[in-house]
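Tip: read the tokens left to right.
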């Protein structure tokens, strides 16, 4: 393969980035640009599609100028998952893109979940229903925005839109093409799912499923001029960002059979399945199954909010201090939390970390779920409360792994939350498993580039890519604390029992919120 550098594009929820890697997997250049989206009164969350493309041009061009265009051998592109990005017959946006944070289709999600066809839908797609999926969004549009669907030619996800702009090809990948409408065992659309969802008349909106590990398309002349690269340069359509992150952080390991958690804004918890037959579907019909290149699968449960809960408690602390004339940075507060967490008292409050407005989707589906604090008394102090938020995150992680069968023997980690040494210790103890981070800051972009590397011959397959680029970067394991393990075993039972009894409370409180001015 010619060239010394591959560039990964990762269009996330918060940041759009381009990252250049050399052929050994070492990061050699990166550029970031803050993402922009807006919240609507009806629960919608939307992002301007053309602005997303122009921000992508900017970060890729910056990286190309840093490494030199002649050194670049391929691009790989990934991006935030779920959502719906509609284009017309001229490949132009007909509306802003709907993000995975979009919560307006709550009722449609409930209708699908309660339909007589839900078992067939779940057993085929391997994906539970939530408010942010394309199938749910299209169901909402069908009832409330039929004009959008009449004008639409193709329904994309974020990375698919960028791939169109880079290559001129309308396509999606074997992960997002399957989640809403496909068969996870074969990686193709399933016509029975369209019919079961009563969306057969929208089948024409689905782009072809293209496996970026098997084929690439060339950079168009227009895109090439925009980013400063040669026309025809190979571009690989990566899988959705969470799968690329899992690939870039070491989940694809048939020897260790690890778990993998991303503790970012949202929480993703995964187990490695060497083939579709090894997947253990959840009796509660939740979670996702996503394809790796080849036969392996990642089985997932997802929390709508992970570090968003920490952001919330940090924000409360900043408000309290500011009201007394003190200005403290989030970084300083997080450092203070880390110093004091392990000495704070476990169980003086029980926190359920459902802070996202879209509710929860793993390991149960409930759009009205909201965060709660229980078990407080007058002895509960500030750091007990902070500790309960962190404990809530690690117990939610255990809840998700427990829904997928036995917790894997080792769990690998990435995401901003894993920078906290205290959180890593708590997580190892709550799971009673060693946890390991990977020395790869940009695992999502790395995974997209690894897929491009498979397609262009740098790697024979995903296992070879993992062995070359990821396993050397795994850090030493953080081991469980035996005393904490016993305490978390007790606390988990209380955590799970209380959350299973909360749905009627959430429903009543949702009605209350809607009735208040």
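Filled-in amino acids:
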């Amino acid at each position: 393969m010619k060239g010394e550098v591959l560039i990964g594009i990762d269009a996330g929820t918060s940041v759009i980035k381009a990252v250049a890697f050399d052929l050994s997997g070492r990061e050699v250049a990166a550029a970031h640009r803050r993402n922009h989206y807006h919240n609507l009164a009806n629960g919608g969350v939307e992002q301007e599609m053309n602005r997303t493309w122009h921000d992508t041009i900017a970060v890729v061009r910056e990286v190309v100028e840093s490494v030199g265009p002649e050194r670049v051998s391929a691009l790989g592109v990934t991006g935030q998952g779920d959502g719906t990005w509609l284009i017309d017959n001229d490949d132009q946006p007909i509306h802003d893109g709907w993000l995975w944070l979009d919560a307006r289709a709550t009722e449609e999600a409930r209708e699908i979940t309660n339909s007589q066809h839900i078992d067939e839908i779940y057993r085929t797609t391997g994906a539970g229903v939530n408010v942010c999926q394309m199938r749910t969004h299209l169901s909402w549009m069908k009832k409330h925005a039929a004009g959008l669907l009449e004008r639409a030619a193709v329904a994309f996800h974020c990375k698919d839109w960028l791939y169109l702009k880079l290559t001129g090809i309308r396509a999606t990948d074997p992960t997002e093409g399957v989640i809403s409408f496909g068969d996870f065992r074969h990686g193709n659309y399933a016509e029975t799912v369209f019919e079961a969802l009563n969306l057969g008349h929208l089948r024409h909106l689905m782009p072809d499923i293209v496996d970026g590990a098997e084929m690439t398309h060339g950079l168009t002349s227009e895109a090439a001029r925009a980013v400063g690269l040669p026309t025809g340069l190979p571009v690989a359509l990566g899988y959705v960002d969470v799968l690329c992150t899992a690939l870039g952080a070491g989940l694809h390991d048939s020897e260790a059979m690890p778990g993998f958690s991303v503790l970012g804004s949202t929480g993703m918890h995964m187990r490695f399945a060497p083939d579709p037959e090894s997947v253990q579907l959840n009796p509660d019909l939740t979670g996702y199954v996503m394809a790796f290149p080849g036969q392996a699968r990642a089985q997932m449960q997802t929390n709508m909010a992970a570090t968003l809960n920490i952001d919330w408690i940090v924000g409360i602390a900043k408000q309290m201090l500011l009201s007394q004339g003190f200005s403290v940075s989030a970084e300083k507060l997080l450092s203070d939390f880390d110093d004091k967490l392990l000495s704070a008292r476990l169980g003086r409050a029980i926190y359920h970390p459902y802070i996202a407005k879209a509710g929860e989707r793993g390991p149960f589906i409930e759009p009205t779920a909201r965060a709660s604090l229980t078990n407080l008394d007058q002895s509960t102090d500030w750091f007990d409360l902070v500790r309960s938020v962190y404990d809530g995150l690690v117990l939610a992680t255990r809840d998700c792994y427990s829904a997928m069968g036995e917790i894997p023997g080792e769990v690998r980690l990435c995401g901003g939350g894993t920078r906290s040494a205290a959180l890593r210790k708590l997580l190892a103890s709550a799971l009673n498993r060693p946890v390991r981070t990977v020395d790869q800051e940009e695992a999502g972009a790395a995974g997209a580039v690894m897929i491009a590397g498979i397609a262009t011959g740098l790697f024979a397959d995903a296992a070879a890519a993992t062995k070359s680029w990821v396993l050397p970067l795994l850090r030493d394991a953080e081991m469980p604390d035996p005393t904490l393990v016993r305490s978390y075993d007790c606390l988990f039972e209380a955590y799970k029992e209380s959350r299973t009894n909360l749905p009627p409370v959430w429903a009543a409180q949702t009605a209350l919120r809607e009735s208040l001015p």
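The radius of gyration is 22 Å. The chain has 18 helices and 23 strands.
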